[in-house]
Amino acid sequence: MANLKQLIYTNKALLCIAILLFAVTLQACKKEVKQQPKVEYGTFTNPETAFNECKEILNNLSLNLNKTLDKKQTTK
Q: Which residues of 35-72 are buried (b: 16+ CB within 10 A; e: fewer)?
């Protein structure tokens, strides 16, 4: 009977420790969560405007990529 009481107290103590650790971990996780930056890319109601913006972005990207590749080839 004494062993049973000791086992019950041990289980209760372990449960309390587990709950305490869970609460502390949960609070630490809440502190580590960062707000994602809000990025506005915009929306276009006119399809032609959207197409032109996309075309300009892709052209600039292509030019920058080609310049980077040319620099790497000339340095070899």
A: eeeeeeeeeeeeeeeeeeeeeeeeeeeeeeeeeeeeee
pTM score? 0.40
- Give Cα separations from 59 to 46, 47, 65 (angstroms): 20, 18, 10
Distance of CA 45 to the CA centre of its chain: 31
pLDDT (tens, 9 = 90+) of the chain, 76 residues, equals 778 888 888 999 999 999 999 998 888 777 665 666 665 566 777 888 888 888 988 998 999 888 888 877 777 6
